[in-house]
Amino acid sequence: MEKLTRKDFEKMSLSELLSLAEEKRVKGWKSLNKAKLVEAILKLSSVEDKLEARKAAVRATATAAPAEVHHEEQKIAQSKYYVGPAVAQTFKETDFVFPQGYGVDKIVLLVRDPYWMHTYWEITWGKIQSVKAQYGDDTISQSRYVLRVLDVNNASPDKPNSYFDVDVAPGANSWYINVPNPNCAYCVDIGFLTRDGKFILLARSNVVMTPRAGVSDVFDEQWMTLEEYDKIYALSGGLNVGLSSGEIRKAMKKKLESLTSSGFVSSGAVSSFSRRHEEKKRGFFLVVDTELILYGVTMPDAKLTIQGVPKKLNPDGTFSARFALPDGKQVIQVKGISSDDNGENTITPIVTKETTYDEKHN
Hints:
Elements: H1 6-11, H2 14-23, H3 34-61, H4 66-79, E1 106-113, E2 116-122, H5 125-135, H6 137-141, E3 144-151, E4 162-167, E5 174-178, E6 185-193, E7 199-204, E8 208-209, H7 226-235, H8 245-261, H9 273-282, E9 291-297, E10 303-306, E11 309-311, E12 318-324, E13 328-331, E14 334-337, E15 344-347, E16 350-353
Helix pairs in contact: 2-3, 3-4
């Protein structure tokens, strides 16, 4: 069989390369992209070529008995899967035991839900002894061992908004804490609370933020109110960003009035200029204009095109665009490509608009 070159591998599809990598037992093949798969397969092929050459040399020069030649070939084949010294074979999983501690004074705070947090800590014996030497053995032995929970929402741990203490058992190294406020920043100190109310700090945790409780205040695009559509219209470039809902409606009204007074309405107007001019003479007119707002979200580092035109994404991966909506069918192809070019999605909204005009005069 003819030996495959780098160009041959590069011409293969990703699925073909993945199948080949699986067959050749390439390490971690499932997570590799096309370029890395090609490199890994080429490297493995080179190793296999060297092994085949060695086997051929053994056959050509062997003077030993056939059984010895076969034994040598087995050793060569096994060398393909050599992963390290033979000492690894004597390792037993049960020989390793996680240590009781790591000799570091530390406390870590984690969030469980809007009203519960979990913390774990390690306070070394040396730390306890140094505190006893500083404040006296009797003072520490008569003190409470507590977690001081600090409300640091828009504040620092040194000047918290408020705090409360939780008594913990001397031998404990973890605890669940019930907190009063969701959507709030917390920090935890562990230490001794003396009989005269003095708090002796042993370690301070990281700061965490509990999540919101209840229904999210982020609007759902499938069930928007008119005010929320106004927000998207403004963000898409239809109006100035930052206007209130009332200001948006006023600006939209002003826009339509200016279009009417100028005798021009963008694509989708209901009638010709002469008809609108005649209606203005009669003292009554009606103008209807339509626009289409498209919006969505993808990975922040993706490449996006709308109708073949590149579209810049917001930092969080969201995007929006505004189109005039004339009568007829609009095909709006939206294509997203991952930053590594290995993923591609295309979504194509097709919008059809038909305007009717019914004129009546008394």
